[in-house]
């Protein structure tokens, strides 16, 4: 898209004609991650002032969908996958494989640009963390989280998510 705009300009600031032109001229890549893993990551990075994961989750639930931080807000409200036709959807846990495909399509060498960590190692770590953190939550919190992220769980294949039940 040829129009100059600041990097922090949001799509909603453009008119419909400009939006269509931009979306039609870019390769659109959406990176998605299990919402429960996003919560764990936010907690581990100290995004909240809560002393425990359970109290952090309660703070998230109490803040509501509209007041949620972009760090843990449901992806469908941020990325609008039903309105934007993404060219690629890259799942966390398959980053090396999927990014390798994207880089090859762009004519770049995969090995020099991707981190060394393997998806298997990352998957195992988050599986273990998810199990530990999920066990800290009350049944009501688990149900509320599943409801909070229901549209993400419906839109993306997070079949292994602890919130999928």
TrEMBL record:
GO CC aspect terms: Golgi membrane
Organism domain of life: Eukaryota
Enzyme class, UniProt record, top EC level: transferase
One Pfam family from the record: Sulfotransfer_2
Coarse class of the protein's main subcellular location: Golgi
Name of the protein in question: Carbohydrate sulfotransferase
InterPro entries: Carb_sulfotrans_8-10 (IPR018011), Sulfotransferase (IPR005331)
Its EC number(s): 2.8.2.-
One GO biological process term: carbohydrate biosynthetic process
Subcellular location: Golgi apparatus membrane
MF GO annotations: sulfotransferase activity
Keywords: Carbohydrate metabolism, Glycoprotein, Golgi apparatus, Membrane, Signal-anchor, Transferase, Transmembrane, Transmembrane helix
Similarity annotation: Belongs to the sulfotransferase 2 family.
Annotated membrane topology: Single-pass type II membrane protein
Keyword Transmembrane helix part of the UniProt annotation: yes
Keyword Membrane tagged: yes
């Amino acid at each position: 898209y040829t129009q100059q705009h600041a990097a922090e300009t949001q799509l909603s600031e453009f008119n419909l004609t400009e939006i269509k032109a931009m979306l039609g001229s870019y390769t659109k890549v959406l990176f998605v991650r299990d919402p429960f893993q996003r919560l764990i990551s936010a907690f581990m990075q100290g995004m909240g002032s809560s002393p425990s994961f359970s109290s952090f989750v309660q703070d998230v639930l109490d803040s509501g969908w509209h007041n949620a931080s972009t760090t843990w807000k449901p992806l469908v409200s941020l990325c609008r996958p039903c309105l934007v036709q993404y060219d690629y959807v890259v799942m966390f846990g398959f980053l090396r494989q999927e990014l390798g495909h994207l880089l090859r399509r762009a004519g770049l060498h995969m090995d020099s640009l991707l981190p060394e960590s393997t998806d298997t190692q990352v998957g195992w770590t988050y599986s273990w963390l998810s199990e530990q953190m999920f066990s800290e939550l009350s049944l009501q919190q688990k149900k509320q989280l599943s409801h909070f992220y229901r549209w993400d769980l419906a839109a993306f294949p997070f079949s292994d998510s602890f919130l999928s039940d």
